[in-house]
Design brief:
Strand content: 25-35%
Number of helices: 4
Largest sheet: 6 strands, antiparallel
Radius of gyration: 15 Å
Distance between the termini: 28 Å
CATH superfamily: 7,8-Dihydro-6-hydroxymethylpterin-pyrophosphokinase HPPK
Shape: globular
Order of helices and strands: EHEEEHEEEHEEHE
Structural class: alpha+beta
């Protein structure tokens, strides 16, 4: 399974995520197979910014991991992403969470994503699309979320295109 995490907290958050999913689906060699619901979460790291909408998608691709990252970065730039503050506000953020069983640690890409298994804004939508598949250390996303996500940390916003 290849999964991408998406987030937005500037402008039309839902529209930004919808546009990112559409652009990824239109990218040569990429097919979007599953899209989670949208979830609203408080920012992590740099907290003086608006809440995020987050989603996770599963894709099938003929692109390698680095090529997929290149596509994600191009989609971010095309939707106005500017990188000025680490963990700061953004129109859209797309992270490669994992790429099948590939393990990679380079300057530009680490797989699986080094913190995905600790982040409720990833685990809750991931649990929705990954089902019973183990995603980290033999545990499902739902098991990981139950262990680290308190009540209200992640709020269901709605299905993509139908909002809250």
């Amino acid at each position: 399974m290849i999964c991408l995490g998406l987030g937005s907290n500037l402008g039309d958050r839902e529209g930004n995520i919808a546009a990112a999913v559409a652009r990824l689906a239109a990218w040569p060699g990429v097919s979007v197979e599953k899209v989670s619901s949208l979830y609203e979460t408080a920012p992590v790291g740099y907290t003086d910014q608006p809440d995020f909408l987050n989603a996770v998608i599963a894709v099938v691709t003929t692109l390698g991991p680095r090529e997929l990252l290149t596509a994600c970065l191009a989609v971010e730039r095309g939707l106005g992403r500017e990188r000025s503050v680490r963990w700061g506000p953004r129109t859209v953020d797309i992270d490669v969470l994992f790429y099948d069983d590939v393990v990679l640690d380079s300057d530009e890409l680490t797989l699986p994503h080094p913190r995905f298994h600790e982040r409720c804004f990833v685990l809750v939508p991931l649990a929705e699309i990954a089902g019973d598949a183990p995603v980290f250390a033999g545990k499902t996303a739902a098991e990981l979320a139950a262990a680290c996500c308190g009540d209200g940390a992640v709020r269901l916003y709605g299905k993509l295109g139908r909002g809250g």
